Amino acid sequence: MNSTRLPPSPIPTPLTLRDATDEALVAALSTNPSASVGEMHRRFARKLRGLAVSLVGASDADDVVQDVFVVVLTEARFRPAPSRLPAWLSGITRRVANARRVQLHMERLEPADAMIVDRWIEEIDGPGE
Fold it and tell me: pTM for the full model?
């Protein structure tokens, strides 16, 4: 039996991602995105949650962090420079949190906006017309 050994892969397997550098995590996004994002979550979720709490409050922070990693997993065309991985994740967190704040704001204002429009219509057309 002739057994040939393959050279080690430059991209870590899921078992070695725990010790992987940020550069290796970014590279693994192309070959093993689930494992890479899982390791990013393990490393960065606590810090990102702290940022999310400061932006949207504790009640929505977990949803924001979850959405951050969904974005990382699904937006394959965007990849950070490995040295910018923490800043990249923080930027995504800020964008997701801002979108969440706008969504919450719109949900609160929607009934009030409808009342304002109804008043304008009454002023223009008169009541009941």
Answer: 0.72
